[in-house]
Design a protein that fits this description.
Blueprint lengths: L1 H34 L3 E8 L5 H21 L2 E8 L4 H13 L4 E4 L8 H10 L3 E4 L5 H4 L5 E5 L2 H17 L1 H7 L6 E8 L5 H16 L3 E9 L4 H14 L6 E4 L2 H13 L7 E3 L5 H8 L5 E4 L2 H16 L15 E3 L3 E4 L3 H7 L4
Parallel strand pairs: 1-2, 1-3, 3-4, 4-5, 5-11, 6-7, 6-8, 8-9
Antiparallel strand pairs: 10-12
């Protein structure tokens, strides 16, 4: 009897050891699956594939992905699609990528106030989302701990755009050149982005308020929405020129494409005044326009920095790793890359570094 009990006891111990070994082996396999992933799939959804700034960001994301592939040997698939400014289209694209088991979604929202559908589907499938450039409303972003935003502070861009103008007008000769009718008041027009976009609202209000607080007398002749688009801005500016054939002394544009559209119209109509024109973003075409003194200045939007941060975060999330400590999150959600001022005096630095190539 004692022999049978001893045999059973040894059998139980052996079985326990076997089960423990299997458990450790399975755990090791699971760990290996996580840490030795061979492919990462990231979907990039943009509001419009023809937007100059967004295109620059996605190009930087692609560069980062290619370099990371070489360094790690992990294949990084980056699928980039545009929604043609339709939120319904973007919602459908998000659904397809989620159903295709993509690891992370990077979303440049069509409508920043309408992220609900994408967030609901992402939460249901446990798919992290990094929104970029077009910031969702705070209530949406706070719904889940795997929702993030990468962009730049709209207020800072408005402040810097105002500083470019203020620094120009401090020079008596420059002020006299801008104030063509010599009445001490700068008459201006504004070309705005799109209605309801946070950058449109904040850049416009902050820039004008900064100029007023600096003590300048201003007269707004007109403002037009041109939806960030150069061709639309050209058309809108021609309309403003027809309405104010001898009055426009300054053009404030919410982005560079619209600033360049205004310059196109000024040149095409042989406008008798030489308005001071300022933009925001520091795109490649804008840098060249600053170099040739057609565009007075711009505010550089760090597309390289944003693209790299988006990819660093997406890479970590895809591997279920923590966000790198080098990335400073505000409220565990936001990453804001700083702007910088570009004028003729420092444009060569931006051209030579090729930051917008």
């Amino acid at each position: 009897m004692r022999t049978i009990r001893h045999f059973c006891s040894r059998l139980s111990i052996s079985a326990l050891m076997i089960f423990s070994f299997i458990a450790v082996l399975l755990s090791g396999c699971a760990s290996q699956t996580e840490t030795e992933k061979k492919e990462i799939r990231i979907a990039v959804l943009t509001y419009d594939e023809y937007d100059t700034l967004v295109d620059s960001i996605t190009k930087e994301m692609t560069k980062w992905g290619r370099q990371k592939e070489k360094e790690t040997g992990i294949r990084i698939t980056l699928d980039i699609v545009g929604a043609k400014k339709s939120q319904m289209t973007q919602n459908s694209q998000a659904r397809k990528f989620i159903e295709g088991n993509y690891d992370v979604l990077c979303v440049n929202l069509v409508d920043r106030t309408d992220a609900t559908v994408i967030i609901d589907r992402a939460m249901a499938s446990d798919t992290p989302v990094i929104f970029f450039n077009r910031e969702p409303v705070e209530e949406d972003l706070s719904r889940w701990d795997k929702l993030y935003y990468v962009g730049a502070g709209s207020r800072q861009s408005g402040e810097m755009q105002a500083k470019i103008i203020i620094d120009a007008l401090k020079n008596e000769k420059e002020f006299a050149a801008v104030d063509a009718n010599k009445n001490g008041t700068i008459q201006y027009v504004i070309l705005e982005g799109e209605a309801g976009h946070q950058d449109t609202l904040i850049r416009t209000n902050v820039c004008i308020n900064e100029l007023i607080e600096a003590g300048y007398n201003l007269e707004r002749l007109g403002d037009e929405y041109a939806n960030w688009d150069r061709d639309q801005a050209r058309t809108k500016m021609r309309e403003l020129i027809n309405k104010y054939p001898f009055q426009i002394e300054m053009v404030i544009a919410n982005n560079d494409d619209m600033a360049l559209g205004a310059i196109d119209a000024i040149e095409e109509t042989d406008y008798p005044l030489d308005p001071l024109v300022v933009g925001i973003n520091g795109t490649e075409d804008a840098l060249e326009a600053i170099r040739t003194m057609k565009l007075y200045g711009s505010v550089y939007n760090d597309v390289k920095g944003q693209g790299e941060v988006i990819m660093e975060m997406a890479y970590a999330l895809a591997l279920k790793e923590p966000i790198p400590s080098s990335i400073k999150l505000t409220f565990d959600k936001y990453v804001f890359k700083p702007y910088s001022i570009i004028t003729y005096n420092n444009v060569q630095k931006y051209l030579s570094t090729g930051q917008n190539q």
